Amino acid sequence: MSLSFQQNFKLGILGGGQLGRMLIQSGIDFNIPFAILDPDRQAPCSALAEFHTGKLTDFDTVMKFGAACDIITIEIENVNTAALKELVKQGKKVFPQPDVIELIQDKRTQKIFYRDSGIPTAEFVLTENAADVRRHASFLPAVNKLGREGYDGRGVQILRSEKELANAFDAPGLLEKLIDFEKEISVIVARNEQGEVKTFPVVEMVFHPVQNLVEYLFAPAELPTAIAKEADTIARTIIDSLKMVGLLAVEMFVTKDGKVLVNEIAPRPHNSGHQTIEANITSQYEQHLRAILNLPLGDTSMVIPGAMVNLLGEPGHEGVAQYQGFEEVARVSGVHVHLYGKRFTKPFRKMGHVTIVDYDLARLREKTMFVKETLKVIAS
Amino acid sequence: MSLSFQQNFKLGILGGGQLGRMLIQSGIDFNIPFAILDPDRQAPCSALAEFHTGKLTDFDTVMKFGAACDIITIEIENVNTAALKELVKQGKKVFPQPDVIELIQDKRTQKIFYRDSGIPTAEFVLTENAADVRRHASFLPAVNKLGREGYDGRGVQILRSEKELANAFDAPGLLEKLIDFEKEISVIVARNEQGEVKTFPVVEMVFHPVQNLVEYLFAPAELPTAIAKEADTIARTIIDSLKMVGLLAVEMFVTKDGKVLVNEIAPRPHNSGHQTIEANITSQYEQHLRAILNLPLGDTSMVIPGAMVNLLGEPGHEGVAQYQGFEEVARVSGVHVHLYGKRFTKPFRKMGHVTIVDYDLARLREKTMFVKETLKVIAS
């Protein structure tokens, strides 16, 4: 069978950030022509594909962009789903499906979905505003989340005591019991139109203590087999329940008493899968493309253990980015630096990531710490 | 140290074919802005970087293109070296150096260089024209090579008997003793400005019986350690003798009596290194970029055994390319298809390649044969 995407075809991506950039990089192998929509004309994808500047949340902009594409996908959830639904009606393929994006856009509907589908997750109450949050003092310590538009650590805060209730978000959101977890893990799962499902091996994430961003991760996660299996099953159950086509990242807590609870899901390539480019047979990016093009899913096996360090803008630095220590880390065997092509840095901005691979897990950890301490994004 | 190539920098590539395309794909990780010069406005690189249409052999065209770049490299040898020399005088960095490109452009000067540097190579005589070739009947069976502009199997023919002397090339070239070889192998070696040198493990190539193109290859080569070591030493000796900066592919014969003889060299990424993208810690493309940017060279170790199959246009097909069997091969674990984005196919045109990785060598060979038999480039 010859495949349609190799000639006279266009794959549209809503969002032109680093995830789109790595999708394009992967799609070069399959000769996929991409079109990108992003509000920032200097977005990481801008020089690598047909690029359109426009708002992802604007109905007409998304309609016009999508009309010129054959398949439309996303690399960020905050997009106009009404336009995507209309494009589906007009015969376009949109993966992940607009109703899945909509469900995930709101952390409240996400939580209701877990509860209704029997997916284990932390206990929660929905809250409508700050006053409503303050009525739930007995629920503390808790995590207060905004329903919509939280991203990369924004819209999420911990409320430990009644005193901290003063900071409560004053918009529809939720309170979630603070989980005293042992580990944070992630499983990335893919599903194509035929319903084929494959999961990547579980990875273990370490978050930045303040910024609520993945600071670094290790694959494979050090976990009892039963717990890894449980996490894998949960990821499969979620994507099957949603009948979603594409890639879904499932972030989970492992509690101190060995329970697995779903924290959040993202229907796209994810920060917790960057290391698959070097460490697995198929990368998460190729897997997403395979899923939405209805190709057979790729083998997700790990070839070599990997770690990933997010390269965040150094606090106190704002301006044209410079990469201090680049040469020092490039000298270390198994270190792969990925820069996202962002001209300007600011504190904690995701400027790139570094994958480290090594057969020896102790050496892998050592190299990871060296990268974390050596490579810095400063302003020139 | 912050590095200059991450802002306000341009890397120019002479040639916009598949090797350039994979250099760009690799360079995305280091955030390298590329400019490409190629005569074909639909060249594989055309949609992926700043693209200029023009002749690589034209002095003024190369001068104008190079003047706007900081470093200039090549992905094909047939370029105007006078312009490159002038660019060096004007302070540009040109890697590989123009005099190395010039030496390699002519198979006659290449052979003289081997002889003068004590590099083992097949016995040869220089020939000026067809009549001159015919005077060397006693040298048969031999390979008759044109001095200049042979590429991808063109400009090379075997003359077995006096009768075949009628086909002799009528231009400056050479006759080389036909080697009754056991294997054809390749070593890719890199050198940066500091003189650091690293080789990739030896690979074993199988050539198309008629087209003189690499049909498929295996890495690692099955060779006695002493012979692999000899091949490695030869590659290092050549790049050191040339003081070349960049990547050099050294193709060699292993004779039935266990000698290693240099066949040809190419001062750029090479068909015999494609599998390094998936199978080695550092790919040949990243290594070339590291070498010419004067970064520390990357670890060349193999992570997993790999094979590579060239995807050539099917004989009898000419027109818009279609990839028959794409889905079938995509289903096989460890198969990575790389399409070069060429719209039109013709018989034996290099349209892409497939890398296959597997820890089990028998399975690797089996999968390689399956890919060779299944994936075909036909015209729609």
Explain what you see.
Two copies of one chain form a homodimer. Chain A is α+β, with helices and mostly antiparallel strands and 380 residues long. Chain A folds into three domains: 4-94, 3-Layer(aba) Sandwich (Rossmann fold), CATH 3.40.50; 123-177, ATP-grasp fold, A domain (Dna Ligase, domain 1, 2-Layer Sandwich); 181-379, ATP-grasp fold, B domain (D-amino Acid Aminotransferase, Chain A, domain 1, 2-Layer Sandwich), CATH 3.30.470.20. Helix content of chain A is 27%, strand content 29%. Chain A has eleven helices and 21 strands. Chain A has helices at 18-27, 59-67, 81-89, 98-105, 107-117, 130-134, 225-242, 276-279, 284-292, 326-330, 361-374, and strands at residues 11-14, 34-38, 50-53, 71-74, 93-94, 124-127, 142-146, 156-159, 173-177, 181-191, 197-199, 203-207, 214-219, 246-255, 260-266, 306-312, 319-324, 335-339, 344-345, 350-357, 376-379. In chain A, the strands form four sheets. In chain A, strands 10, 11, 12, 13, 14, 15, 16, 18 and 20 form a nine-stranded antiparallel beta sheet that branches. In chain A, strands 3-2-1-4-5 form a five-stranded parallel beta sheet, sandwiched between helices. Chain A has a four-stranded antiparallel beta sheet with strand order 6-9-7-8. In chain A, strand 4 (71-74), helix 3 (81-89) and strand 5 form a beta-alpha-beta unit. The radius of gyration of chain A is 20 Å and the shape is globular. The termini of chain A are far apart. The relative contact order of chain A is 0.11. The mean pLDDT of chain A is 94. The interface between A and B is large, with 48 and 48 residues. Chains A, B: Pfam families: ATP-grasp, PurK_C, RS_preATP-grasp-like. Chains A, B: It is an enzyme of class 6 (ligase). Chains A, B: It catalyses: 5-amino-1-(5-phospho-beta-D-ribosyl)imidazole + hydrogencarbonate + ATP = 5-carboxyamino-1-(5-phospho-D-ribosyl)imidazole + ADP + phosphate + 2 H(+). Chains A, B: Residues 111-293 form the ATP-grasp domain. Chains A, B: Homodimer.
